[in-house]
Amino acid sequence: MTEKLVEAIVAMREEDAARITEDLLKSGTDPFEILTMGRDAMGIIGQKYSDGEYFIPELIMGGEIMNQVVEKVKPLIEEKKAEEGTKTIGKVVIGTVIGDIHDIGKNLVTFFLDINGFEVIDLGVDVAPEKFVEAVKESGTKVVGLSGFLTLAFDGMKQTVEALKEAGLRDGVKVMIGGGQIDDNIRKYAGADAYGDNAQEAIALAKQWIGG
Amino acid sequence: MFIYPENWNSLSPDEKMQARFDHWLSGAGNKFGNDEAEKRYRRRVQRLIDVINLKKPDRVPCVPQVDAYQAEYSGMPYGEFLYDFEKTEKAVIKFHKDFQPDYNMAMIAPGKMFERLDMKTYRWPGAGLPMDSKSYQMLESEYMKADEYDELIANPEGYFMRTYLSRAFGALQGMSMIPSLYYAMEFPMVPMLMGMFAVPPVREAIQALMDAGQITGEMMGTMGRINAEVIGNMGIPSMMGGFYKVPFDIIGDTLRGTDGIMMDIYRRPEKVLEACERLIPIAIQIAVQGVNMSGVPLAMGVLHKGDDTFMSDAQFRKFYWPHWEKVMLGIINEGIVPVQFVEGRYNTRLDVIAEAGLPEKKMIWWFDQTDMAEVKKKLGSFSCIAGNIPTSMFLTSTPQEIKDYSRNLIEKVGKDGGFFIAPGADIDMATPENIHAFIDGAREYGKY
User: Where residue B67 falls among pLDDT bands split at 50, 70, 90?
Assistant: First the structure.
């Protein structure tokens, strides 16, 4: 029946996914296994996105279905197992830079980092440079992702990279940027290490830098 | 302002377009300060009409799409540009005087008016953003609930007036109580209708609209002075006609938000389609209203959720394209040129557009990051195309690099006419040298 759950989530059959989850729980299936199945389903959705078969509607809908599964299952998972389940290959700090509130691109990258086993520290939107500095210090991350949709993000990215430099953290991190009007010209302008054209490139960069 | 001639309804769509072009070309409504300005104005409008008709004018037109940069160039924060009209006026005039662009896209927006209405759908410098921020930003939210599609479909105008306005503007909450005007029929019915206008929240909402109108009236005075200088004395025509939106974006951007509409595609696809269909005449009306008001026969479609990365080809063909196509055709039918301002990337959409059999010489397709060679190949036979200098270049490149980009672009897609050169999106940040290079580039390399 667990295969059926994966199938239902991947096919965006919301009601089926909820029903199967409940049936699985009733029949005594380990809740952790259900969660794993959910993650597998998200992995397949991510793959389909990378293959150009799925797009934003499926990522949003898939995420919504997964949330419903998690809500049913999470209270039943033993703490120890939950910890095992969240073992990650590295941390990435991500956010939309100061002045910009667009989050679709950032959320896409977060989604893919997450299903690829990274621990994502998502600072949200309109993130001040000092918040990035703080998060880098606290997490000890090696990778920072800066997102921005509007042309005003050009300066937000530059300010953030400068703030990292001033805090003496620049040499310890790699900075990747992406979004709407962002391109390689802006990478140079902002002093970032790399520009990613899409979510998959962001994952490849994070893997390359963290090694995973 | 374009006022319909008496025989308007008997004109064919082609005749309507010609009448609108003639009006635009005549410069009616503008007072020219000198003959040279008038000649320049006509030459520039004619160039644009030529490229719409897929002809070769004397040279490639060059359209600077600037907004916040006009403030930056005058050394003022964009916030001041939205709040202090005396300064706005000076900044817009200075920009056009110094750069002498072929066209003006001057559009000013009064911060105080948005504040009076307590508009919740955006934040801007002065309200939620620092004064020196370079842009305004939309705040998506679920202004329409998932179970309200039927209400929207039954009466979109009423839904916008009562439900959307009262939710999206804090000062217009009383609009939710505006009664149906169909009560204005029988002697005893009229007082019942008017009774609703005695109710305090309704009166407050109407007062807010009147105040907002007053502030906007002041802005229009400023706009008039800008036009007298920029159009009347410099001969730089306005390209700001009207706007239009694709039905799917009306629902996705404004009413349901991205998450909402994307889930609706799965949860209630039939409702989404029905609502999109219902919004077609309204989207056309939006274009007509703006074009008649400005007298400029161009309606710019601001496109969002149909981009390559947003939805699949099948979803695009089902949810985005069919209603959009009908809106464009409806706009053309009114004698107006729809201008598709295609931000982002549209490489995978070009085939759908090319295969639709759209009418010849009636539209402008303006691209951002789409492959222009493909655009030329697929759309160039029937439509004027435009684009696509990356906005990042205006800030980070050298003037020579901008000129080189322009020259390559003109050689690649502009040789046969039917083309104008423009940035891919709004220029908000730039160096003056790069703007000059952009304008000079078209003049140097764009001669036919």
Answer: confident
The answer to whether the Cβ–Cβ distance between B311 and A102 falls below 8 Å is no
Lookup: tokens for B302: 């601001």
Nearest-neighbour CA in chain A from B228: distance (Å): 31
Q: Which of B315, B425, B428 sits opposite A57 (nearest CB)?
A: B315
Q: What is the ipTM of this complex?
A: 0.88
For B327-348, the DSSP string reads HHHHHHHTT-EEEEEE-S--GG
**pLDDT of res. B57:** 95
Superfamily of domain A2-84: Methionine synthase domain (1.10.1240.10)
- pLDDT band at residue A164 using 50, 70 and 90 as cut-offs: very high
**Per-residue CA distances from B42 to B46, B98, B235 (Å):** 6, 21, 8
Residues B138/B122, Cβ–Cβ less than 8 Å: yes
Q: Where are the domains of chain A?
A: 2-84, 90-210
The three-state secondary structure class of B1 is coil
> Does residue B253 contact residue B305 with C-beta atoms inside 8 Å?
yes
The residue among B69, B78, B122, B134 with the most chain A CBs within 10 A of its CB, best to mutate, is B134
Hey, what domains does chain B have and what are their CATH numbers? 8-445 (3.20.20.210)
CATH class as words, domain A90-210: alpha beta
